[in-house]
Specification:
The protein is an alpha+beta fold. It has one domain (3-194): tRNA wybutosine-synthesizing-like (SSo0622-like fold), CATH 3.30.1960.10. The protein has six helices and nine strands; from the N terminus they run H-H-E-E-E-H-E-E-H-E-E-E-E-H-H. The chain has helices at residues 3-19, 28-35, 76-85, 106-118, 158-186, 189-194; strands at 40-46, 49-55, 65-70, 89-95, 98-103, 125-129, 134-139, 144-150, 153-154. The strands form two sheets. Strands 3-2-4-8-9 form a five-stranded antiparallel beta sheet. A hairpin with a 4-residue loop joins strand 6 and strand 7 (134-139). It is elongated. The two termini are 21 Å apart.
Length: 197
């Protein structure tokens, strides 16, 4: 299968997933911009999220259960309700935006990495190199990860929860501004010449 066919198949699946509501809506405009370039296509990506995850033990993602998940700013009541649903160890996690882009060659990967870092995605890099593709991971630094429930019992006070949510929302907003900067860069005419639309 050649590059064009692979990209076509991936984008067909992406469109199906969007139609089913399985793609983070906030990241779709960015994915659309990237996918317009002939030598790039996106795979699993997220605009950033807050989750409450219920774990039997640290590191056991296989048996984890999402008690709450939001791709937006969060409010105290919904987070508290999610914490109360935890039956084991509950973790409050803010994940930054993460965008995976498959590039046809190293030149396009290097250019994309430059744009990502300049837009604020400081933890970006090459994730994998294949025979006919290079996968770039665009990642940011806005992270929070803290335990909020132990053995099904809420272990944090109301004041701490309010501060935690305030910090998470501030970091979420920062990450969204980085996505906006990235979108602006992806719209630049010079970039379209370099990426040979």
């Amino acid at each position: 299968m050649n590059w064009k066919e692979k990209k076509g198949n991936i984008l067909k699946r992406l469109n199906e997933r969007m139609g089913e509501g399985l793609v983070d809506e906030r990241i779709i405009p960015t994915l659309d911009r990237i996918n317009k370039f002939s030598y790039l296509y996106t795979v699993s990506s997220c605009s950033g999220r807050v989750i409450i995850i219920d774990l039997p033990k640290i590191g056991d993602k296989r048996n984890a259960v999402f008690a709450g998940r939001w791709h937006r700013r969060v409010e105290k009541k919904e987070v508290l309700n999610a914490i109360e649903r935890c039956k084991r160890d509950g973790w409050f996690i803010l994940n930054p935006p993460i965008i995976h882009v498959v590039c046809k060659d190293i030149e396009h990967a290097k250019e994309l990495l430059k744009i990502a870092v300049e837009s604020g995605f400081k933890r970006s890099g090459i994730k994998s190199i294949g025979e006919d593709k290079i996968t770039v991971e665009m990642n940011s630094t806005e992270v929070i990860e803290t335990i909020v429930a132990k053995d099904g019992i809420n272990i944090i006070g109301e004041d701490y929860l309010e501060v935690l949510i305030e910090c998470a929302n501030i970091k979420f907003d920062i990450s969204q501004r980085k996505i906006e900067r990235l979108n602006e860069r992806l719209d630049e005419p010079l970039l379209h010449e370099k990426f040979a639309v």
